[in-house]
Amino acid sequence: MRYINIEREVVTTNIHNQIKLNRERLGLTQDELASKLYVSRQTISNWETAHSYPDLENLLRLSVLFDVSLDDLLKGDVAVMKHELNYARTNKWAWLMTVMLGLSALSIGPSVKFWGWWGLVLPVLLINISLYAGIKIERWKGQHQLKTYSEIVAFEKNKVIDENERLRNTIKDQVVLVVTMLLFMIGAGGLALLGFWLVK
Which CATH architecture fits 2-75? Predict the structure, then answer.
């Protein structure tokens, strides 16, 4: 079982056991199952040992191959995925990144005023803390395979995501990222100007 810590609440996913039990029920080795799904044996091993989670396409293939419904295969995992998606929105690293970036922009004026050019050390330090938090967020998203979970939750709501919709979602995510960065840069510039104005 895969254990996931969600806001101090430990929840387990069951798909890993289901894959192994159904594979053994059919008398298949990991290599044989891998060849039927067109994936590597290592991928099957990772699924069974909870190192990764199959994407929606492979979940559907497993469901057909094992002759079990997707509901039976997931057995409660969708609730865990919904918890993870909600937790991702309030991740502590996201808050840390936002606060550190805001403080770095606001501290430029006073730091330079009081310590000269050496005063830039503080904003640079705060920006580095923010970058570290951003890296942690991306690693966390990768470890928890949030895009895959989003697809499964959508499928459970009878919303099948085709390639065109995936492409639209990718483009939408990139546009949102660019707009967010532009708005943040404008806000950071405003905070920096406010910092300079406050020390005059």
Answer: Orthogonal Bundle (1.10)
14/168 Cα distance (integer angstroms): 31
Domain boundaries, the chain: 2-75, 91-198
Return d(Cα 150, Cα 141) in angstroms, integer. Answer: 12
Structure tokens at 37: 């799904």
58-97 b/e with 16+ CB inside 10 Å = b?
bbebbbebbebebeebbeebbebbebbeebbeeeebbebb
pLDDT of residue 136: 81
- R_g over Cα of the chain: 23
- What would the pLDDT profile of 148-188 be if each residue is shown by its tens digit? 656 666 666 667 667 777 777 778 777 877 887 788 778 77
Please state whether the predicted TM-score (pTM) of the whole model is above 0.85.
no
pLDDT tens profile 18-37: 899 889 999 999 999 999 99
Q: Which of 75, 99, 63, 71 is nearest to 187 (CA)?
A: 99
Residue 82's DSSP bridge partners are: none
SS3 2: strand
